[in-house]
Amino acid sequence: MAAAAAAGPSPGSGPGDSPEGPEGEAPERRRKAHGMLYYGLSEGEAAGRPAGPDPLDPTDLNGAHFDPEVYLDKLRRECPLAQLMDSETDMVRQIRALDSDMQTLVYENYNKFISATGVHALLRKLQFLFELPSRLTKCVELGAYGQAVRYQGRAQAVLQQYQHLPSFRAIQDDCQVITARLAQQLRQRFREGGSGAPEQAECVELLLALGEPAEELCEEFLAHARGRLEKELRSLEAELGPSPPAPDVLEFTDRGGSGFVGGLCQVAAAYQELFAAQGPAGAEKLAAFARELGSRYFALVERRLAQEQGGGDNSLLVRALDRFHRRLRAPGALLAAAGLADAATEIVERVARERLGHHLQGLRAAFLGCLTDVRQALAAPRVAGKEGPGLAELLANVASSILSHIKASLAAVHLFTAKEVSFSNKPYFRGEFCSQGVREGLIVGFIRSMCQTAQSFCDSPGEKGGATPPALLLLLSRLCLDYETATISYILTLTDEQFLVQDQFPVTPVSTLCAEARETARRLLTHYVKVQGLVISQMLRKSVETRDWLSTLEPRNVRAVMKRVVEDTTAIDVQVGLLYEEGVRKAQSSDSSKRTFSVYSSSRQQGRYAPSYTPSAPMDTNLLSNIQKLFSERIDVFSPVEFNKVSVLTGIIKISLKTLLECVRLRTFGRFGLQQVQVDCHFLQLYLWRFVADEELVHLLLDEVVASAALRCPDPVPMEPSVVEVICERG
């Protein structure tokens, strides 16, 4: 063909023939060119001629190894500019012609393309169906169960549709045998339970895809899940046993959260994904499953939390509760019907209440410990040259210690309401915990408990005021008074600032609590007066009851018991002055310290008693009794005690002198006995008047004592006032 073209036109060709042949051959050549273009052949290759240039030549435009850069470099080196421009124009023309030929080829063969594509897809499907048994067998052998199920799922509908055809029926029978063996292996793998929850869920999913009964698989799935979760529970329970040391509460909750709670979440998520078609019945079955196992887990957690009894630091406990509560959010959301989240919140709230009670007991124990320290300090023997702590220092120590314990308890329970804690935004911790738990239960409860404990010392039985040291009563009364004036308000303000109350529960007003503290302080101080008055009264009573007043000798000095009374009263005055202010006294008379006490010491007293004490005059006993009764009725021995030193000493002296008066009324006195009473009373008057609010009170009571002794004396001859003064000054 190439030789014919080179030899020129063949013989017999007409003058109108072109070198390419007659005009009728042009369309044919174009169709051949299109065909060659479609199959990627050049015209020469299609005609069997040699392919032309070297196929490895990088400058061959049609070659497989064409390199544009090399081709352009060659053109720039070998061709002038005009030839380059002609080459560009020719190349553009060729590209356009090629695009036109390609478009024409596509238009002419579109239907053929479409038909070929549909036939190819159908052939591929048929090929897949015929190869399906072998593919399934291979997947089962390799353990690619998921791929095998997917193959079966793709072909199942087609095989079912064309099962009436023998060839398709044979393929379906082979596949059913293989899938039955596959289902058996999946069930065996599922029942062994050696794999984890995700693998077992995959087995169930594949079995469901193979058409296995969903109800049966649901029961088996929950049964296997129960076995795994119960194993986690047994592991946690073993940690609570007596033999191995229990891990700290944070580590315990971490293990429970990652083991049991994490496993429960996996089971719930897989169940809901696999058995969603079960409807409400299936959901309730899962909820009951989770509720049962969750209650057992909660019981173990509460057992471990119950072991956290010691210490006042709640940081580790709160962190453990936070993680416990936080880990149960996921199963709580997945299993809302099981109520796991609510149950976890209830456990946290219950632990918080228990910790409040624990801190309340701690505050009570701290207060009792402070009282024990005070008792020991008061009972400690005094070492020569070394002064022990005074009452003011002891009071300051007790107040500081209690306040520091209160602040420490507030800081400890405040951890339950920290913002970073997952349960702090719950309604209980925003409201009831703050108001009723911390404020009322802990702080108000402790203050009232402190007042009740202090008041219990007022009820101590026994002689001489029982086993309670009077100084302790005095210290407690001042402590309660300080709480009434400042401390209660400070503590409650501090509590309200730290725990912002957001509920409407009623709370105890500050004024009510202050009134209770003030009443406690009043009772303690009143009891202190009674105890100290009783101590002095016992001395006076014994001194009167153990003496033979009818046969006593003429007095030459003041009895020692009266000196002891003055000494003890002075000591009490010093003791009370350490904690209480002086108080207010009435204006003193100018001769109070010089007044000689006797029945003749003043014109008033002479007018009262001189006629009766004159030996030659008969004694009007009825008159003296009426006067004595009149004065006695004017004195209220147990009048309310005010919070100052003068009021306290006045109450003690009234009790003491009233006791002396009652004892004198039960005795009979001789002349010298009456004179001894006269000397003793004068001595007491010299010193006791300065301790009381009204010196007339001392004068009145001592007048009654001497008058009562005179009434019970057969020979009432008083001692000369000058002699009484000498004896008292000497004594």
Task: Outline the structure in words.
This protein has helices at residues 2-6, 25-39, 43-47, 68-78, 81-108, 110-142, 145-161, 166-192, 197-209, 214-239, 249-274, 279-306, 315-327, 329-334, 340-379, 391-414, 427-430, 432-456, 470-498, 510-545, 560-577, 603-613, 621-633, 645-664, 671-688, 695-711, 721-730. The protein has 731 residues and is mainly α. Among the domains are: 213-329; 345-379 and 390-508, no CATH class; 531-582 and 638-730, Methane Monooxygenase Hydroxylase, Chain G, domain 1. Helix content is 71%, strand content 0%. The model is unreliable at 1-26, 32-49 and 592-619 (pLDDT under 50). Helix 16 runs parallel beside helix 19, helix 18 (432-456) runs parallel beside helix 20 (510-545) and helix 21 (560-577) packs antiparallel against helix 24. Component of the Golgi-associated retrograde protein (GARP) complex. Component of the endosome-associated retrograde protein (EARP) complex. This is Vacuolar protein sorting-associated protein 51 homolog. Residues 1-19 have a biased composition (Low complexity). Residues 1-37 are annotated as: Disordered.
Throw out a few tags for this protein:
single chain, Vps51, 731 residues, disordered N terminus, endosome, mainly alpha, Methane Monooxygenase Hydroxylase, Chain G, domain 1, 27 helices
